[in-house]
């Protein structure tokens, strides 16, 4: 045994690194390219409560990055501390890591950036008369002076990686680096609609958002009017999870995922589970290899997500991944259902989002016109305070009771059937205006929901046939059908195997009424056989229900009586929407009264 006193007489090879070396190593993780600098600095500005953030870059950020904000600024003493490693105002101890409500928390961005650039900080707190200017080169403070300055902070980063040639070599073209920066700034603009962002490249404005607080203005700035007006709103709550945001309808897709972003408590993140949930929500709706446009915001209690798992904080870890997956899936499906199938009768009208005219931003300190829906931070704080107060939120009911959304009820309010045209479309009026309804799709929608509900509510009212009907099938179809007889029986089709390649029908769902049961079932069986051939995939119950709804629905070309049409629209108005519409086609086109007035120049 050696006593501690004698230990230093031994030779050593290990020594502690000097601070500026440590910072440069850390920079290797945090600062990958100019966009990472922009990310860290903008995060700091947001954390400082800035309402206006100017991002100026030159040569794709390789020559210069300057971020100017009107946030709370720093005192001269804090300014000196801020460039030290592990110096932060955002957490105090490890415990606080469980409840992070700021974007930064590690206190390593500024020293890391300063280690690999010519770094200048100019800052002033509004409540102090004196500001501070610091110049750092090679990680050493070369100038520090108290001075006059505007309230807020300006950080200038020149010649990034000038002292780390290996890194410098890996930078891409000006265009590529700039595109990373632009993508980043636009995403910040989506997440922080109350902040006005402006991005200049070599003095030219590349992007600007109003900071009006209205998320729709941010959408407009980011996606442009054509895409923005097509987007559908997500708004979904389940337990402590709230999901808001925007998704494109199935017909509006992109060949890559570049236009998808996910935010957790307003932090831009990547997460396998989030992308998968989005993909799954669109499965069967979009062609292979096409991706919807999406900006999805999750609000979760800070303790249920670990944000400290990635060097650039680009990934997070959820404590309940499964719940997150299901919530995102349901949120997106619900958004598509509620609004996705209801396009306007005329281009550019009554689409998913009502894009307002941009408003002039008040010059100074104006009231936000509208509270942003993505993450009011108080809610997160509230959850956190509850937790600290020992109030166990996990005991709250898992799902809030939500009013049942009936997507067509409002549109059909006070409807009256006016007639049918082309034996395909029902024309009706309602309080909203003139309605044109595709009779097949509407009926399909009604049946789909009815069948989905019926499957769970046994027994289904069945009409027994006086003479059972026998259907002959080929061997393959008989086998395929054999696997789904139970499912069909649940829907009210009393089918049984009959010999090796036939089935017998002893009863059909009562709601089919007087229609030609034999022809309908024949059609259904043909379709099932067809599906078996095309897909070479197991036929799922969901597909089976969708197919049945489609085959049992009235067709284009069927003449409908006034009473039948009224009944159909009544049923449509009563549909709820826990299930995705089978084929994603529009059901109702609306020509609103306002639009009529506008078109006839009455307005
Ligand atoms: P972190 O953001 O993780 O705290 P940083 O190195 O990015 O670490 O910043 C260190 C500290 O400097 C912050 O905690 C904050 O107090 C201060 N700071 C940095 N940027 C700004 C800014 N734009 N406005 C006001 N304070 C800032
Ligand atoms: Mg930071």
What's the quick description here?
It is built from 17 helices and 24 strands. By secondary structure, the chain is α+β, with helices and mostly antiparallel strands. Bound molecules: adenosine-5'-diphosphate (ADP) and magnesium ion.
Explain what you see.
- A hairpin with a 2-residue loop joins strand 7 (196-201) and strand 8.
- The longest helix is centred in the middle third of the chain and has 20 residues, at 321-340.
- The chain folds into 3 domains: 19-208, Histidine kinase-like ATPase, C-terminal domain (Heat Shock Protein 90); 215-358, Ribosomal Protein S5, domain 2 (2-Layer Sandwich); 416-573, Ribosomal Protein S8, Chain: A, domain 1.
- With 603 residues, the protein is an alpha+beta fold.
- The termini are far apart.
- Helix 6 crosses helix 7 (215-228) and helix 12 packs across helix 14 (517-535).
- The radius of gyration is 31 Å and the shape is elongated.
- The strands form 6 sheets. It has an 8-stranded mixed sheet with strand order 5-4-3-6-2-1-7-8, covered by helices on one side.
- The structure holds adenosine-5'-diphosphate (ADP) and magnesium ion.
- Residues 40, 43-44, 104, 109 line the site of magnesium ion.
Notable traits:
Ribosomal Protein S8, Chain: A, domain 1; five-stranded mixed β-sheet; single chain; Heat Shock Protein 90; binds adenosine-5'-diphosphate; 603 residues; Ribosomal Protein S5, domain 2; 23% strand; 17 helices; elongated; binds magnesium ion; eight-stranded mixed β-sheet; alpha+beta
